[in-house]
Structures are given as structure tokens and as C-alpha cells.
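Reopening this one. Same input as before:
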Amino acid sequence: MNIALIAHDVKKEELVNLVIAYEKIFSQHSLFATGSTGQKIAEEAKLHVYKLKAGPLGGDQQIGALVAQNEIDAVIFLRDPLVALAHEPDVTALLRLCDVQCVPVATNIATAELLVKSLERHDLAWRNIVHRYRLERRSGTEG
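Same output, byte for byte:
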């Protein structure tokens, strides 16, 4: 599965610690992350991460584009709810896209851990059915 990892500055260390704690689970999936978050995860957790732009420089939108194309299966986005951000519209758009595409999204450490545990149990296997169905619709082979 393709997992997007995003964290606001004050939450980056928390996300890195989550990935390290569940390294065995995360190592079984393709990881995508914005800017310095991806760099920190790659360095500290020693996992391969597809690194996109920093969130404020378009990284949130890049993740959103992958979600819109149904290429992301889950998003962990540890947000700082106490700080107003200049790129807040990008964040809101990403969360809306996750809702539209039925992509599970965790925005705090508690829900992130629940999402990781569901990955461990293969509870998100239904995403494969969604992928197949959408591919069939695109190619016109449903039937």
C-alpha cells in the first residue's frame, strides 16, 4: 500500500518516532512524504521514502494529486491545531480529497496508531478492490 506521511514542524519528531516504533509495518509499504518530514524519516528510521516538496511549497498539493488519482491508500498527517498556517487552504483541500476518495486519514498520534494497527491486520485490503474497480472503469472492462 502507498502511505503518505506529513507532519507540521512541532509534530515531525512525533511522526518519526511512530515510524521507528512500527518500522516493521512501514517497511512493508511504499512511503511518500513531504519535504523535511521525508528526509527525517529516511535518515532516522532508515526506510526508503519518496520525498516530495515541502508542504508550503506544494507538497500537500502533490500528495493531494496522488490521492485524487487513487494512488495513496492512507494518509498520516500530524497537524498542529494551535497554529494558523499560510497554506491552510492546501491542508483543507487535501483532507477534503481524502474524504472524496475514501482514503483513511489520521491527523493526530492516537488515530495514526489505530491506522498503523489496521495496516498490520490488513484491514485496508478493501482498498485493493477499489483500485481494481476504478482501473476496470477506466479501461472499460467492467462488466
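So the earlier flakiness isn't reproducible anymore. For the record, The chain has one domain: 2-139.
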